[in-house]
Structure prediction request, 193 residues.
Amino acid sequence: MSYSPRILAFAGSLRRDSYNKKLVRIAAEGAREAGAEVTYLDLRELDLPIYDGDLEQQNGLPPGARKLKDLMIASDGFLIASPEYNSAITAALKNAIDWASRPMPNEKPLEAFTGKVAGVMAASTGALGGLRGLPILRVILSNIGVLVLPDQIGIIKAAEAFAEDGSLKDEAQQAKVKSIGAKVTETIRKLKS
Prediction:
Protein backbone atom coordinates (compact mmCIF):
# COMPACT_ATOMS: atom_id res chain seq x y z
CA MET A 1 0.00 0.00 0.00
CA SER A 2 1.40 3.40 -0.93
CA TYR A 3 2.11 6.13 1.59
CA SER A 4 -0.85 8.37 2.49
CA PRO A 5 0.52 11.93 2.75
CA ARG A 6 -0.77 14.22 5.49
CA ILE A 7 -1.65 17.66 4.14
CA LEU A 8 -2.75 20.82 5.95
CA ALA A 9 -5.04 23.04 3.85
CA PHE A 10 -5.80 26.65 4.75
CA ALA A 11 -6.46 30.08 3.28
CA GLY A 12 -4.77 33.34 4.17
CA SER A 13 -8.15 34.99 4.60
CA LEU A 14 -10.09 35.53 7.80
CA ARG A 15 -13.35 36.47 6.08
CA ARG A 16 -16.12 33.97 6.83
CA ASP A 17 -17.29 33.54 3.22
CA SER A 18 -13.82 33.87 1.67
CA TYR A 19 -13.32 32.86 -1.95
CA ASN A 20 -9.90 31.56 -1.01
CA LYS A 21 -11.39 29.27 1.63
CA LYS A 22 -13.64 27.83 -1.07
CA LEU A 23 -10.68 27.52 -3.42
CA VAL A 24 -8.42 25.63 -1.00
CA ARG A 25 -11.25 23.22 -0.20
CA ILE A 26 -11.36 22.26 -3.90
CA ALA A 27 -7.60 21.61 -3.87
CA ALA A 28 -8.07 19.57 -0.69
CA GLU A 29 -10.67 17.46 -2.49
CA GLY A 30 -8.12 16.76 -5.24
CA ALA A 31 -5.55 15.76 -2.62
CA ARG A 32 -8.02 13.41 -0.92
CA GLU A 33 -8.92 11.82 -4.26
CA ALA A 34 -5.17 11.21 -4.79
CA GLY A 35 -4.97 9.41 -1.42
CA ALA A 36 -3.95 12.12 1.04
CA GLU A 37 -5.26 12.66 4.55
CA VAL A 38 -6.23 16.34 4.54
CA THR A 39 -6.88 18.58 7.52
CA TYR A 40 -8.65 21.86 6.76
CA LEU A 41 -7.83 24.76 9.08
CA ASP A 42 -9.54 28.14 9.30
CA LEU A 43 -6.95 30.69 10.51
CA ARG A 44 -9.79 32.70 12.04
CA GLU A 45 -10.28 29.97 14.66
CA LEU A 46 -6.71 30.34 15.94
CA ASP A 47 -7.19 33.85 17.35
CA LEU A 48 -3.53 34.70 16.72
CA PRO A 49 -2.23 38.00 18.07
CA ILE A 50 0.16 39.96 15.86
CA TYR A 51 3.61 38.48 16.38
CA ASP A 52 5.41 40.33 19.18
CA GLY A 53 8.75 39.12 20.53
CA ASP A 54 7.99 40.56 23.98
CA LEU A 55 4.70 38.65 24.10
CA GLU A 56 6.50 35.46 23.08
CA GLN A 57 9.24 35.97 25.67
CA GLN A 58 6.73 36.59 28.48
CA ASN A 59 4.15 33.92 27.62
CA GLY A 60 5.64 31.60 25.00
CA LEU A 61 3.57 30.64 21.97
CA PRO A 62 -0.13 31.52 22.26
CA PRO A 63 -2.44 28.47 22.15
CA GLY A 64 -3.48 29.19 18.56
CA ALA A 65 0.13 29.41 17.42
CA ARG A 66 0.96 26.15 19.19
CA LYS A 67 -2.02 24.44 17.51
CA LEU A 68 -0.95 25.75 14.10
CA LYS A 69 2.64 24.71 14.62
CA ASP A 70 1.65 21.22 15.82
CA LEU A 71 -0.58 20.74 12.75
CA MET A 72 2.22 21.90 10.46
CA ILE A 73 4.82 19.65 12.07
CA ALA A 74 2.45 16.67 11.75
CA SER A 75 1.89 17.42 8.05
CA ASP A 76 3.98 16.46 5.05
CA GLY A 77 2.77 19.42 3.04
CA PHE A 78 0.41 22.34 2.65
CA LEU A 79 -2.26 23.66 0.33
CA ILE A 80 -2.47 27.42 0.70
CA ALA A 81 -4.93 29.78 -0.97
CA SER A 82 -3.59 33.28 -0.58
CA PRO A 83 -5.67 36.39 -1.14
CA GLU A 84 -3.80 39.35 -2.57
CA TYR A 85 -3.87 42.53 -0.50
CA ASN A 86 -2.13 45.47 -2.16
CA SER A 87 0.01 43.23 -4.38
CA ALA A 88 1.17 41.05 -1.48
CA ILE A 89 -0.07 38.35 0.90
CA THR A 90 -2.38 39.08 3.81
CA ALA A 91 -1.17 40.11 7.24
CA ALA A 92 -3.05 37.10 8.65
CA LEU A 93 -1.08 34.66 6.50
CA LYS A 94 2.29 36.29 7.18
CA ASN A 95 1.51 36.41 10.90
CA ALA A 96 0.61 32.69 10.94
CA ILE A 97 3.86 31.83 9.17
CA ASP A 98 5.82 34.02 11.60
CA TRP A 99 4.32 32.37 14.69
CA ALA A 100 4.81 28.85 13.30
CA SER A 101 8.46 29.63 12.54
CA ARG A 102 9.32 30.43 16.16
CA PRO A 103 11.71 27.89 17.70
CA MET A 104 10.69 25.79 20.66
CA PRO A 105 12.98 23.83 23.01
CA ASN A 106 14.18 20.52 21.53
CA GLU A 107 12.96 21.43 18.03
CA LYS A 108 15.01 21.70 14.88
CA PRO A 109 15.03 25.20 13.36
CA LEU A 110 11.97 25.78 11.16
CA GLU A 111 10.70 22.28 11.92
CA ALA A 112 7.17 23.20 10.83
CA PHE A 113 8.42 24.05 7.33
CA THR A 114 11.70 22.35 6.37
CA GLY A 115 11.21 19.58 3.83
CA LYS A 116 7.48 20.18 3.39
CA VAL A 117 5.81 20.44 -0.04
CA ALA A 118 3.31 23.19 -0.85
CA GLY A 119 0.81 24.04 -3.55
CA VAL A 120 -0.34 27.66 -3.78
CA MET A 121 -3.31 29.34 -5.41
CA ALA A 122 -5.35 32.53 -5.23
CA ALA A 123 -8.78 33.95 -5.96
CA SER A 124 -9.69 37.60 -6.31
CA THR A 125 -12.58 39.73 -7.47
CA GLY A 126 -10.10 41.59 -9.69
CA ALA A 127 -8.74 40.90 -13.16
CA LEU A 128 -5.46 39.26 -12.05
CA GLY A 129 -6.91 36.62 -9.75
CA GLY A 130 -4.56 37.35 -6.86
CA LEU A 131 -1.47 36.30 -8.84
CA ARG A 132 0.68 39.27 -7.73
CA GLY A 133 0.80 37.96 -4.16
CA LEU A 134 1.84 34.39 -5.00
CA PRO A 135 5.49 35.18 -5.88
CA ILE A 136 5.86 36.76 -2.43
CA LEU A 137 4.38 33.69 -0.77
CA ARG A 138 6.71 31.47 -2.82
CA VAL A 139 9.76 33.45 -1.70
CA ILE A 140 8.78 33.31 1.98
CA LEU A 141 8.04 29.58 1.91
CA SER A 142 11.14 28.72 -0.14
CA ASN A 143 13.38 30.70 2.21
CA ILE A 144 12.16 28.65 5.18
CA GLY A 145 12.71 25.28 3.53
CA VAL A 146 9.41 24.52 1.77
CA LEU A 147 9.40 23.01 -1.72
CA VAL A 148 6.74 25.04 -3.54
CA LEU A 149 5.46 23.32 -6.67
CA PRO A 150 5.44 25.38 -9.86
CA ASP A 151 1.75 24.74 -10.61
CA GLN A 152 -0.54 27.53 -9.48
CA ILE A 153 -3.78 29.22 -10.45
CA GLY A 154 -5.40 32.60 -9.95
CA ILE A 155 -9.18 32.73 -10.18
CA ILE A 156 -10.33 36.09 -11.57
CA LYS A 157 -13.73 37.68 -10.87
CA ALA A 158 -14.14 35.31 -7.94
CA ALA A 159 -17.54 36.73 -6.97
CA GLU A 160 -18.90 35.18 -10.17
CA ALA A 161 -16.64 32.11 -10.38
CA PHE A 162 -18.09 29.85 -7.67
CA ALA A 163 -21.30 27.83 -7.78
CA GLU A 164 -23.67 27.56 -4.82
CA ASP A 165 -22.03 24.31 -3.70
CA GLY A 166 -18.57 25.94 -3.51
CA SER A 167 -17.23 24.39 -6.70
CA LEU A 168 -15.94 26.46 -9.59
CA LYS A 169 -18.38 26.98 -12.45
CA ASP A 170 -15.60 26.57 -15.01
CA GLU A 171 -14.83 22.83 -15.22
CA ALA A 172 -11.27 23.41 -16.48
CA GLN A 173 -10.52 25.66 -13.51
CA GLN A 174 -12.07 23.13 -11.12
CA ALA A 175 -9.88 20.38 -12.60
CA LYS A 176 -6.73 22.57 -12.42
CA VAL A 177 -7.29 23.39 -8.73
CA LYS A 178 -7.91 19.74 -7.89
CA SER A 179 -4.77 18.80 -9.82
CA ILE A 180 -2.70 21.07 -7.57
CA GLY A 181 -3.89 19.08 -4.57
CA ALA A 182 -3.16 15.82 -6.39
CA LYS A 183 0.35 16.96 -7.42
CA VAL A 184 1.24 17.92 -3.86
CA THR A 185 0.09 14.46 -2.78
CA GLU A 186 2.04 12.70 -5.53
CA THR A 187 5.21 14.74 -4.89
CA ILE A 188 5.15 13.95 -1.18
CA ARG A 189 4.61 10.27 -1.94
CA LYS A 190 7.63 10.25 -4.31
CA LEU A 191 9.82 12.02 -1.76
CA LYS A 192 8.81 9.56 0.98
CA SER A 193 9.43 6.43 -1.12
